[in-house]
């Protein structure tokens, strides 16, 4: 059975196709027309959107599609506010529970925002935290000052910036890395056997730089969506 998983984020639409548990291929910056064309070749579809008005409203009443929301049956227990929880955060938690069954897992999603989501060894999603992402921080420095330039993130940075641009890079990238290390350390003090997974579009800035032992998985959200589709097979 071929299945389509879609992640409609703040900046782009991403798509993956699965055959059973196996990811076949992924695409970024997907259009509605592309999805409609792929649907002719696939059996199931699930959509996770962070937007109030999704471009995929036409699939709302489709008999083979799920638009993930708070009422969608899921294979974990949601202890978070069910009205306000983002579909992407639920999918990440389910992907984490599938990756590390019976473990305490912290998922760090480095995208437009940086989200921290915790699921315990009982498969209970407890919530987490949200902070500004890397690009948001660069934009904020430029927007709210009169002279600081608008920059983009770089991977190779020094601790001590020798000019304004390098100082901005050091402040943002090193600051976020330290933030992540600090959050992980605080969780680990409470949950000593904690597993940590980093995912998201800005994963390249962190997967090799953090001092803690972490697992990088850029496909975690899609894997979580695929698991939800499998869990809901009897509802189709």
List keywords for this structure.
236 residues, alpha/beta, five-stranded mixed β-sheet, 25% strand
Account of the protein in words:
- It is a single chain.
- The two termini are 13 Å apart.
- Helix 2 crosses helix 5 (220-231) and helix 3 crosses helix 4.
- A six-stranded mixed sheet has the order 6-9-8-7-10-11, with helices on both faces. A five-stranded mixed sheet has the order 3-2-1-4-5, with helices on both faces.
- The chain contains five helices and eleven strands; from the N terminus they run βββαβββαβββααββα.
- It has helices at residues 32-39, 87-99, 134-143, 164-190, 220-231; strands at 2-8, 13-19, 22-27, 44-49, 65-67, 77-78, 105-110, 113-119, 124-132, 195-199, 215-216.
- It has 236 residues and is an alpha/beta fold.
- The radius of gyration is 19 Å and the shape is globular.
């Amino acid at each position: 059975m071929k299945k389509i998983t879609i992640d409609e984020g703040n900046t782009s639409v991403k798509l993956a196709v699965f055959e059973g548990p196996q990811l076949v291929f992924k695409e970024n910056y997907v259009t509605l027309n592309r999805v409609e064309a792929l649907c002719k070749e696939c059996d199931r579809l699930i959509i996770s959107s962070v937007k109030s008005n999704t471009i995929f409203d036409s699939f709302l009443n489709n008999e083979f599609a799920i638009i993930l929301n708070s009422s969608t049956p899921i294979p974990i227990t949601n202890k978070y506010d069910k009205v306000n929880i983002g579909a992407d955060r639920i999918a990440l938690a389910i992907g984490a529970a599938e990756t590390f069954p019976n473990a305490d897992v912290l998922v760090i999603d480095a995208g437009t925002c940086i989200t921290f989501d915790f699921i315990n060894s009982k498969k209970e999603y407890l919530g987490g935290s949200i902070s500004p992402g890397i690009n948001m921080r660069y934009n904020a420095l430029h927007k709210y000052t009169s002279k600081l330039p608008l920059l983009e993130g770089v991977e190779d940075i020094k601790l001590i910036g020798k000019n304004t641009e390098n100082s901005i890079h050091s402040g943002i990238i090193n600051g976020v890395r330290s933030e992540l290390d600090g959050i992980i350390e605080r969780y680990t003090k409470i949950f000593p056997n904690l597993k940590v997974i980093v995912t998201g579009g800005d994963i390249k800035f962190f997967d090799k730089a953090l001092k803690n032992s972490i697992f990088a998985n850029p496909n975690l959200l899609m894997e979580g969506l695929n698991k939800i589709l499998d869990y809901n097979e009897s509802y189709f």
